[in-house]
Structure formats: structure tokens, C-alpha cells
Amino acid sequence: MTGLGRYARVLRLFDEAKSEWTVQEIAAALDVPASTVYRSVRELLAEGLLEQAAEAQYRLGAAFVEFDRLVRATDPLYRIGTALLREVALQARLPCVAVLARLYGDEVMCVADATSPEGLVRTSYERGRPQPLTRGATSKVILAQVPTRRLTRLLAAPQASAPASQAQDPAALRAELAAIRRRGYCVTHGEVDRGVVGIAAPVSIPERALAASLSLVVAAASLDDAEERRLVPLIVSSASLLTEQLNKDGSRPSTAREAP
Fold first, then answer.
1. Are 3-65 and 75-250 in the same CATH fold?
2. Which of 68, 136, 142, 165 is least crowded, fewest Cβ atoms below 10 Å from its Cβ?
């Protein structure tokens, strides 16, 4: 392992299923000498990216908490979008979760969410959790924004968070994405979580390489045709408002010091 990649490979081993690792376990998982892992772990400890746990084990360090606070304070999508999400969840007037997500490598990542006061809807979309790129309205609206060349590459890549049984025909998916672009929104039923409906609209700023979506996840039992017709304009207009606010934010003079 060399360069930045060696640290990333170590850190990406940590997840909800296994949050603590020994040096020997890391070495076995990555198929590298334990001496190499010792050096990487020592350097990650020094930077607060790992910390000591019980019995010679290590876990993710408090530096990630610091970085998370910094992202929440400085990321325009999160900073501007969070207040809007809360308003959308209130205006929906039924049990729901409002979600703000963006393209993250070959997947989609939720960056913020807001639950309605009833709090009765559960969704797999939660901050920091990657989701399949080709399932659900939240993701499909984002995928529909991607330029043709990148779309071809994304569709050819295996989706790590999507089971093989959920693979879709590329031609059919391309046709669906074209329809989403024409319509300006997407509605899906139970593609990511059973018993819920997703309604999503695009948040797109190509000049800033931002492909995102604002969506509402609603319990299917609470949503009839009349409610869907009421909610679609709410999501579309809210996504347009967020796009406008992000564009205005991006036009402000930067106060950050430019790198030499």
C-alpha cells in the first residue's frame, strides 16, 4: 500500500457491521504485511482519524466528528437545504421524510433529511449512507442529470450497494431517465424501501459539478392520487427554489484565501 490510498483502504474497512479492528485483522483483510499496517495505523492515530479501543483494537477517531461539523457549517447544499427540508416536511401535511441527496462517486449519498412531526415513516436514506444509483426516485432524478459519457460509465460499473437481483436493463433505464428529464420529476413505488413512495425533483448546477435531488418519502398508505398531485408541485418548486438559492450563494465573492 502506498500514498493516500493506503490510509483510505484501512479507514473503509470500518463499518456498522464491524466497527473495531486489530492490526492483524486489517492486515489479513487487505492482504498486506502487518508491519505496513502498523505504520499506517500509527499515523492515523496521530491525526485523530483512528483511536485506541479495548484489547489492541482500533475504531474511527474523533477527527471525523470535527470534519462533520465543518462540512455542516460550510457545505452550501447542507447549509441552505436543511431549513428548506424542514419546511417541505411541514407543508406535506402527512407522515413523510424530506431528503436531500447528491451524487457520490458511483452511488448516491443523502446529505440531509427532515422528518415530519408524525415521524411514522422509515427510509433507508439517512445522512452519510450510500444508496444504489439506479433505484428509487431520489437516485434516478440525480442519474437523469448526468452527461451521456459519464452515464455510460456509471451504468457499466457494478453498484456496490445494490443487490445483483435488482439489476436493471440499461436500455429500459435510459428510456426512463429520458422521461424523467422531460417531466422534471420522478415518482417511484417501493424501489428502495417497501411500503413507501418517493417523489423527487432535480437540484442541478452543472457549473459547480453538482448533481443532487430534493425528495419526499411518503408511506404508500397515506398517498392517494389527489395527494400525489398536490405534492409533486411542492417538491418541484422547492427543488427549483433551492437551485436558485445555491446559484445566488455561489455568486457571492469568496472570503477564503486562494491557494498560491
1. no
2. 165
DSSP 254: P
Per cent of the chain over pLDDT 70 is: 91
Residue closest to 205 by CA, chosen among 240, 238, 174, 236? 240
Residue 31 has pLDDT above 50, yes or no: yes
CB 239 within 8 A of CB 214: yes
> For 85-126, what is each residue's pLDDT tens digit?
999 999 999 999 999 999 998 889 999 999 998 878 889 999
Element counts in the chain: helices (H) and strands (E):
9, 9
Q: Computed from CA positions of residues 204, 78, 8, 134, in that sequence, does the dihedral angle turn out positive or negative?
A: negative
* Cα(86)–Cα(73) distance, integer angstroms: 17
User: Which CATH code is given to the segment(s) 75-250?
Assistant: 3.30.450.40
Residues 6+ apart with CB under 8 A from 145: 181, 202, 204, 211
DSSP label at residue 176:
H
pLDDT band at 229; cut points 50, 70, 90: very high
For the chain, the domains span 3-65, 75-250
- Fold of the domain spanning 3-65: Arc Repressor Mutant, subunit A (1.10.10)
Q: Are 242 and 101 in contact (CB under 8 A)?
A: no
Give the up-direction half-sphere exposure of residue 14: CA atoms within 13 A in the CB hemisphere: 19
Beta carbons within 8 Å of 218's beta carbon, 6+ residues apart: 92, 94, 95, 96, 121, 196, 197, 198, 199, 227, 231
